[in-house]
Amino acid sequence: MNIERNFDVIYKKDDLEPLYGFKNFPVFMGTTSADSETDLLADMNFWISRGTGMIQLNPLLPLDVLYPAAHGAGCVGRSWESHHTELAKFISKFKPKSALEIGGAHGILANNYQKIDDIEWTILEPNPAPVEGCKAKIIKGFFDENFDYSDAVDAVVHSHVFEHIYDPALFMEHLANFLSDGKMLIFSVPNMRVMVERKYTNCLNFEHTVYLSENYIDTLLTQHGFEIVEKEYFLDDHSIFYAAIKSNSAVGVPLESGLYEKNRKLYLDYVKYHEELVHGINIRIQACEGRKVFLFGAHVQAQYLIGFGLDINSIDSILDNDSNKHGKRLYGTHKFVNGPNILSGLDRPLVIVRAGTFTNEIVSQIKSINASTDFAL
């Protein structure tokens, strides 16, 4: 049973209007070894609040449907390695003696921080899959009203979790109740405004159900008694690091005016761009005349392009750097996943890459494997 969210997630007002929808979108954003007959598809409908301009998904998928297992996002590639390293350095500025990390699936951030300071670090995660050598204590579960934790916590930490939360205001309320005055909340979120402005294909989806641009985050934090201490931008299009302190003197940050008109145009321009992009890519695929065609990324970027009408039947296979995905099938399709080395020796293969901030990194890697590769970006 899907979850209805008929209210604006900032002020809880019933003022949503439909914005755009996808029919029969894959509910899981990763790979699978199961038969394609078991794949679940659902309509993915985005709405916008007339009052706050918040873009949000409605209805929502049940969490046990959405997260049956970890899908491997955010743990492979130089950009993510650098992100975790820099976030650990950012956290270290505030010298916490103990940390509770919400949603630290792989334990990579914990491992990076332990290289700086060997503190008590606990991970709360519904689908833990810790990397080798992770020393953090792991609790399987969600951070909600049922979470009970009695150990001392200097800082709550999370990385690319906030945009997954179904009720951001309630999440902030739980954090405010959990942390006492003077304790820290330190986290990283995707830079969503830049992602949508630059037409990155991996911004809003069944997992990222709210358009948490910077102004919305500032408002939510200060509404719930957190004073923003510092922000740091990781790359110009990737993430924003936040450090906030629980304080009874926090001053509220109001929302910008005119966000409904601004965000509605921003998202509809995003849709139009992708419809035109996919139309152009399909024309290029038709002109390949026997050359092999590949789609990079066994994740939501590929599923989005297919949702916009990409000719998936003409694609040989999906490429991905994560060896755990090789030989498996991209959920919602009949296409299997290979490593990029399959391109070696091919004559001018066409590779479709829409990986946002990671695109240049991927293109450089593929050129080093096969310099004759053509790209559709």
Describe the structure.
The chain is an alpha/beta fold and 377 residues long. It folds into two domains: 78-246, Vaccinia Virus protein VP39 (Rossmann fold, 3-Layer(aba) Sandwich); 259-376, NAD(P)-binding Rossmann-like Domain (Rossmann fold). It has nine helices and 17 strands. It has helices at 63-66, 78-92, 108-116, 168-178, 192-197, 214-223, 259-286, 300-307, 359-369; strands at 16-26, 31-32, 41-49, 55-57, 98-102, 120-125, 137-140, 155-159, 184-190, 226-234, 239-246, 293-296, 317-319, 329-330, 337-338, 350-352, 374-376. It has a seven-stranded mixed sheet, with helices on both faces. The chain has a five-stranded parallel sheet with strand order 15-13-12-16-17, with helices on one face. α9 (359-369) links the parallel β16 (350-352) and β17 (374-376). α2 crosses α3.
Q: Give the tally of β-strands.
A: 17
The CATH architecture category of the largest domain equals 3-Layer(aba) Sandwich
Give the total of domains. 2
Query: What structural class do the secondary elements suggest?
Result: alpha/beta
Please compute the radius of gyration using only Cα atoms.
21 Å
- Main sheet specs: 7 strands, mixed
Helix content: 25-40%
Distance between the termini: 37 Å
